[in-house]
Structure prediction request, 494 residues.
Amino acid sequence: MTNEPTRREALSLAARGAGLIALGGVTVQLVRRAGADPIWQVDPARCINIRLGAVGMEACELCATQCVLPLSAVRAVNDYAKCGRCCICPAYFDVKSEVGPDGLPSRKLCPRDAIKRKPIGHVDPYDPLNNFYEYVIDEKLCNGCGKCVMACKEPAGLGSIRLEVRYDLCLDCNRCSIDKACPEDALTRTQNRSTLHT
Amino acid sequence: MGYRRIRTIGEGLAEREWFQSAIRGIAVDASRRLYVVGDQHLAVFAADGSFVDRRPTERAGFCVAVDARGSVYVGEEEQIEIFDLNGKAARVWRDPKHLGRVTSIGFHSESVLVADAASRFIRRFDGGGRWISDVVGEEGPRGFIIPNGHLDFAVDADGVIYAPNPGKHRVERYTMDGKLLGQFGRWGTGLEDFPGCCNPTNLALHPDGRIVVSEKAEPRVKLYDRNGGLTAHIPAGEFDPTCKNMDIAVDKDGLLYVVDTARLRILVFELAPQTPGAVPPNGTLPVEQGKEVPSP
Prediction:
């Protein structure tokens, strides 16, 4: 008699080994995912303030009102590469307001005056319409009410402003209160922080 | 004066005869044939809206125009394709320096005028496609501000160029040498004003001399006399609310053709007959509400 395994025993051992390796791989992946720290983020395809086609309605302000923080972790963000730098920006001005003495709308849109406007490049001091403007959102003032986002959306604007959860402010609640309130299910768990940083 | 819709072109056509993703430009010739560019082809329709012909374009077309000889010019990125629909092969003017993104083409005498939205210039070419001069543009007395990325214009028989300047909320008139002759319009919420961030976006000339413009958000079409007085309008309800950069064409009988860029249809409007005391179907306003401002 010899102690060497039979062919059947050898194949069985190999199969068990392969199974263990696969199980180990799956375990590593699960552990990695568990440590990936997914975050809440606004899905632009669902949020009615952002998504195309949802026009002619009031902005949804649930991101501003439902967050557990005193000032919501959701903020408006202007993508400068897309911004038209218009003189009469529909996100900055209330374009339904009366004409002011300077020929521009008499009221601003943001209830917290969180958007700052300044002419850029070669400035024509005599004709404000002859200039381009930079619009910067002051995140210390913005509460993510979404009014500017709705107003900037195509076709009225170019859709350069969107809502984002600021994950340095977000408490990562296990059950986000904005998510609970959002009728469009627009708050979603998404990539980990390191992915977003890169 | 009010306008009423009499026809919708695009309904009931076979898929291969129509457009699937975009309609960007239209033109009407003297025999009321309609030329349409979108997707990546040029299509021709008879006056009754029936399909006539279709040709692929090298690149996506942004505008189309027909000259007095019947040659069809399609404006594209960095080039103009010229089709002779009687069978000759297409010619191409390639000039990346002067034809960045061609969004409007017009003709006067032997010159071809071209709007290049990439550099915000209206330029003049000879009949052979050679650049002659920049007529109006960024370095001119005003400069066009076009957040929508579309620069439109029309030129009349006297060689006066009419161009919407949407970022400045006005319509400007220029000579063929680029001298600003005058302008009308202002930002405002009144019907005679140009609302929003940047209107009007598109422009055409009516055979009776009036200026036809389209606006976005809310999409509507308005007609002004040469002094800047609003004479008629087609209200927003006629178009999909997400429309923008709606191209306009006017035929020799005064029919208005307007692109609904969202529904991918071309709506045809005629002047509605009016009986004394009746409410016009598309609304009307007293004339002389706006006034042209002479050039500084």
